[in-house]
Design brief:
Layout: H1 10-17, E1 30-32, E2 38-46, E3 55-61, E4 67-76, E5 82-88, E6 95-100, E7 103-105, E8 112-114, E9 120-125, E10 134-138, H2 140-154, H3 159-174, H4 195-214, H5 221-232, E11 248-250, E12 255-257, H6 267-273, E13 284-287, H7 288-291, E14 302-307, E15 310-315
Parallel strand pairs: 2-10
Antiparallel strand pairs: 1-2, 2-5, 3-4, 3-6, 6-9, 7-8, 11-12, 13-15, 14-15
Length: 316
């Protein structure tokens, strides 16, 4: 079991607990419009399973971590969750990237899930390049990262420092940047997916499995996933957010408390990620250490994924 101490950056504890060893969406360049306004191309994907039909808007982040004015969007996502647009180069980063609406296929159940009224997934853009494109992934993990960065800003850390620090911690501990790596559909992993993309897909599948374990009757899977993001922001699945408040969610007829799944760390998420069974194309994620790899699969194309102390194998 991994014990996670509190740190000035609450999400660092989450990342240490869910650390992984070690394209889609986004792309473009800076350009000028006919009126002389310079813009930067931006794109990415909204993924919890790919969220099609979502609306993506970029906002400034105020010094206290609160949401500022809209700076670009809304942009619509395609069926694979991809979206693209432009940002005025005069806008000052960092930005909060917010997705609302749309629907996706839940990895754990295979059911279509709609992002209901009020449901949001958040991502982050730390800076704009002098030239080239900006890519922004929006997932439950970037949602937790955004909550952590905004909490640091609310506590007095300069907002740019809070965002860049949170992202740097993620990149160091995961081996990839979850705000810029575009995760593939966990139900339809492409043959050319990178190791980081496959790792990301495994983690997203783990969220769906964990949502089933949470067992909040009447709650939508996306509301459970967002609640788990809020819970993860303090580095523990204790049912509390990074400020110590109880995480609640709608259960169809009122509100319910998110139950504590792990009061000491993220072991419950690691366990969930080792027990994902992906129905399409007989792709299975299983724990090499616990279940072992059958002799008949020793020559298969296997990709090891380490999440904390748990070694996963994706079988294609």
């Amino acid at each position: 079991m991994i014990r996670i101490p509190r740190t000035p950056n609450p999400l660092l504890a989450l990342l240490l607990a869910a650390a992984v060893s070690g394209c889609g969406g986004g792309g473009g360049s800076s350009s000028s419009t006919g009126g002389g306004t310079t813009t930067t191309s931006v794109g990415g994907s909204v993924t919890k399973g790919p969220v099609g039909g979502a609306s993506v808007t970029l906002y400034a982040i105020n010094a206290d971590g609160s949401r500022g004015a809209a700076v670009a969007g809304p942009f619509s996502t395609a069926s694979d969750g991809a979206w693209s647009g432009t940002i005025p180069s005069s806008a000052t980063p960092p930005f909060e990237v917010v997705a609302t609406g749309g629907s996706y296929t839940d990895e754990a159940t295979g059911n279509t899930v709609a992002l209901g009224t009020g449901a949001e997934l958040e991502g982050l853009i730390a800076s704009l390049p002098a030239s080239g494109a900006v890519t922004a992934a929006i997932t439950p993990y970037t949602h937790a990262l955004a909550l952590s960065a905004k909490l640091m800003a609310a506590g007095g850390t300069a907002v740019g420092t809070a965002v860049s620090s949170a992202i740097a911690s993620a990149q160091t501990n995961l081996g990839f940047d979850p705000t810029t790596v575009i995760p593939p559909d966990p139900l339809n992993l492409p043959a050319n997916a990178t190791a980081a993309q496959k790792q990301y897909a495994a983690l997203l599948g783990g969220i769906s499995q964990l949502g089933q374990s949470a067992g909040v009757a009447g709650a939508s899977p996306i509301d459970v996933a967002i609640a788990l993001s809020q819970d993860m922001a303090d580095g523990k699945l204790d049912g509390l957010d990074a400020s110590g408040g109880q995480v609640t969610l709608s259960n169809g007829g009122g509100t319910a408390n998110l139950p504590a799944l792990d009061t000491t760390g993220m072991t419950a998420l690691n366990t969930a990620a080792t027990t994902i069974f992906i129905p399409n194309n007989d792709r299975v994620i299983r724990c090499r250490k616990c279940a072992g790899v059958p002799t008949s699969l020793e020559d298969s194309s296997l990709v090891d994924i380490c999440i904390g102390c748990v070694c996963l194998t994706i079988i294609f």
